[in-house]
Amino acid sequence: MDDASLDQLFRQARSPRGWDNLPVDREALVSLYELLKLGPTSGNTCPARFVFLTSDDMKERLRPALSAGNVELCLASPVVVLVCHDPLFFEHLPRLSRDESLRNWFAADVGLSEETAFRNGSLQGAYLILAARALGLSVAPFSGFDAYAVEEIFLGDTGWRINFVAGLGYPDAQILPERAMRLGFDEACLIL
User: Fold this and answer.
1) Interior/surface letters 155-192, b for 16+ CB within 10 angstroms, e for the rest
2) Nearest to 80 by CA among 124, 135, 145
3) Residue 134: is it exposed, middle or buried by C-beta count within 10 angstroms (0-12/13-18/19+)?
4) Is 50 helix (H, G, I), strand (E, B) or coil?
5) pTM tops 0.90
6) HSE-up (13 A, CA, CB side) for residue 163
7) Per-residue pLDDT tens digits for 104-125
8) Could you tell me the sign of the dihedral formed by the alpha carbons of 83, 167, 156, 69, in that order?
9) Cβ of 140: how many Cβ atoms within 10 Å?
């Protein structure tokens, strides 16, 4: 990748503090998913599920579940994404995996399947952020919310579990924040 691409994905990318008025249409959401779904997950489990809230009515239903500090930025975004995982992801493994025994292995161990769904769904949530950046979009992830309320309001009979909430849209370039500090290599890494 060239420097411009690395800048777009990492070095110049920021979680936005405001949104441009440009809409994010269905085609952009489909393109986003078509990219993120290609990221690896263990055993090709693909447990992430995404709920795109695009109408003001749907976003307003989320308001009571959000922490007060997240309401304004989250609900102002053109799209709110509920990044979820399906605890029964293994039901799709006969189609997704070449290993015929994998479905039964996960089905027999609830703890393993829940851990796998959460871990790999989180990976896919990260792929969402990178795919969005690659398409010129920005993502503001939020962990301040009432998970039970979100699941009750939006996930109903799906059985899906919420991981995190994210605002999605084109950033307002006028109010992008400075990059916050990051840990240095020697603080965060070991070479053994």
Assistant:
1) beeeebbbbbbbbbbbbeeeebeeeeeeeeeeeeeeee
2) 145
3) middle
4) strand
5) yes
6) 27
7) 999 999 999 999 999 999 999 9
8) positive
9) 23
